[in-house]
What we know:
Elements: H1 2-27, E1 33-39, H2 58-66, E2 68-70, E3 73-74, H3 80-89, E4 112-113, H4 128-134, E5 138-143, H5 150-153, E6 162-167, E7 176-177, H6 191-205, E8 211-216, H7 228-241, H8 248-270, E9 277-283, H9 317-320, E10 324-327, E11 336-338, E12 342-343, H10 347-354, H11 371-375, E13 386-390, E14 399-404, E15 407-412, E16 419-423, H12 439-456, E17 462-463
Parallel strand pairs: 1-8, 1-9, 2-11, 3-12, 5-6, 5-8
Antiparallel strand pairs: 2-10, 4-17, 6-7, 9-10, 13-14, 14-15, 15-16
Helix pairs in contact: 6-8, 7-8
Amino acid sequence: MKHRTHKLTVFAFFLLKYLIFISGDVNGATNPNIIFIFIDDMGWGDVGCYGNDFIDTPHIDQLAKDGMRFTDFYAAGAVCSPTRCAVQSGQNQARIGITAHIPGHWRPFERVINPQTTMALPLDVVTVAESMKQAGYTTGYVGKWHLGRGDQFGPDKQGYDFAAEINGPHLPGRFKATNPKIAKPAPGQFRTDYESELCESFIRENKNKPFFLMLSPYAVHIPLASKSELVEKYRKRAKEKNRSLPHPVYAGLVEEVDHQVGQIVKEVESQGLSDNTMIVFTSDNGGLNKRYDYNEQADDVVSDLAPLKGEKGSLHEGGIRVPLIVKYPKMIKPGTISSEPTISYDFYPTFVEAAGGTLPENQTIDGLNILPLLQNPKAKLNRKAIHWHYPHYHHDRPAGAIRERDWKLIEYLDGTGDIELYHISQDLSESNNLADERKGKVADLKKKLSGWRNEVLARIPVPNPSYDPERAPEWWSRRSGKPIDSSARKRFPATEKDL
C-alpha cells in the first residue's frame, strides 16, 4: 500500500511539474530575456513598416516581419519624462505628478498657471526593474534617464544592477556617462554606437541567466546631428525626390537608431539567445515637427507627421501615437498585427508576468498584461478607456484626453472650455470634430475623464492673475527664472565635420 502511495505521489509530482511547464509556455512565464528599446521622440510614421518611404530602416522593419506590429499603441505622455515615469512605475504619471518633462516649460503670462511637475521619480516607487530583480533577473539600463538627478534618483537608485546613464548630444565628444566605473567612449565614437556597445557587452556578460535590459538612446531628439555620410546620403535623396522633409540630418539619425537595433539583434543571435529573448521597440512620445518656440533655425523643422495631426507636446495623435514592435519567437507568430489600443504603462505588468514575477502589493498598477495580444493578435483587453493628462503649455495648450474604443475626446484645460471629439477609428487625422453633433457622447466622455482625474488626484491648472494677452506667448526658463531668447540659440553642429 505504501509502495503504491509512493508511486502515486511521484507521478503526481512530475505531472504537476509538467503542467506548470506547459502553463508557463502558454502564459509566457518562461523567463525570457527582455530587451526594451525606448527611442526618444520617434514618430509613428518614421520607419518603413509604418509607411515611411524615405528613410532606410531595414533592421526595424525586419523586427516587425519577425514579430508583431501594433497600429494603435500610445505613449503615456506627450513628452519624455511623463512616459518614462509611466514605464518605470506601471502607473499613469498623473498619480505621481510627473506631467511635464523635468523641469518643464513656463509661460508666466498665459491664461492659466500650470501645475508644478514632480522633479524626480520617488524612490519609494517600486520600479519595473525592482520587480524584475525580485523575479531573479539581472537588470541593466543604458542611455537617457530624465527622471531626476542621477546622483540621487538615477537608474542605479531604482533597481538597475548595471546603470549607464548617458547625458549630452549625439556627436563624438559631446556626451558622457555619469557612471565612472563603465568604459568611456572611444575617440570619435558617436553616441548611438557607444550605447550599442554597452548593450552588447551587457548581453554577453549575462547570457547564462535571465536579464532585463533597457536601452534609451537620446536619438532622435533635437539638436539634430548624425554621421556625415548618412546626412549626405539623405541630402542627395531629398534632392532626387524633390522633398524638404524629413530633415536629412533627422533621417540620418533615424538610420543610426535602426543600426542600433540591428547590432542588438545580431548580438542576441550570436549568443544563441534569439528564441528566448523578447525584443520590444517603441518611443517615449510622438515625433517633432519643429521646436516649440518656433525660432527659425536649421534643426527646427524636423519631420512631417502626416497623416496624424499634431506633434510632440500635443494630445492629438501625432503627439501620442507611436510605433510598437515586439519580437518573441516562442509566443508571437511572425508578421502579425494588433490594432488593440495599448499604452506605455502596460509594459510593467507584461514584463513581470513574462518573467514569472509578482506585482508590488501596495502600489497601484494601471497597466494591463498584453501577453494575450502577443499570442492572439485579434484578442481584446478588458479595459474601459485610456486617459492622458498634460496640463502644460508646449506645442499646444494644457489639455486632457480620453480614448474609449472608437471615440476620442480632448478637453482643453486653459479656461476656454474648448472640446474636440473624434471617431478615431474612422478619422485617424482628426480632421472632423464631432463635438457639436454628438453632444451626448461629449457629455459622457467628459464625465468619465473628470472622474478619472479625481481618482488619480491629477493636478489642474488654475486661473492666472497675471494673465496678459500681449505677453502670453513669452517663454521663460524655469532653471534661470528669465525669458528665453531663442534668437541667441547657437546652431548645433549637424555632423562630426562641423565640429
